[in-house]
Specification:
Helices cover about 30% and strands about 0% of the residues. It is mainly alpha-helical and about 130 residues long. It has a domain of about 50 residues. The termini are far apart. One of its GO terms (molecular function) is sulfuric ester hydrolase activity. Keywords: Calcium, Glycoprotein, Metal-binding. This is Sulfatase N-terminal domain-containing protein. It comes from Micrurus corallinus.
Length: about 130
């Protein structure tokens, strides 16, 4: 396999280098016998390579394409303290991405008795917690 992070000085991956100038697109390794993936077996077992490639073709035909969300400039690290991280709040869930229109969600109105019931329940727990 090709070397990763080639310009990183003095690390363990500088010890392994790709010696031949030709680049290969298909590799086959015996992971149990060669866990470091150093010896390519694709030339010795072309039937296995062919079977695995046919399996990949089958999987690609039945795969569902990835649906990425629309780009949002608020997600850029310059606006978030220089780091990639979550930028949307719960309040932003109301807004459709890219349109700036609130979603039409119809909320059920709570009855006044239900509101009073929850108010007295909170009040009771506060009073009881002050006694303890």
């Amino acid at each position: 396999p090709p070397q990763t992070l080639t310009n990183f000085p003095g690390s363990w991956w500088n010890l392994e280098r790709l010696t031949d100038g030709m680049r290969q697109s298909v590799w086959l390794f015996n992971i149990t016998a060669d866990p470091y993936e150093r010896y390519d077996l694709s030339d010795q077992h072309p039937d296995v390579v062919k079977a695995l490639l046919f399996r990949l073709v089958h999987y690609n035909q039945t795969a569902i394409p990835v649906r990425y969300p629309a780009a949002n400039p608020r997600a850029h690290p310059d606006f978030n303290g220089g780091a990639w991280g979550p930028w949307a709040t719960e309040e932003d869930e109301r807004w459709e991405v890219g349109h700036g229109k609130p979603k039409n969600k119809k909320r059920k109105k709570k009855c006044k008795i239900c509101k009073l019931r929850s108010f007295f329940k909170k009040l009771n727990t506060r009073l009881m917690s002050n006694r303890i």
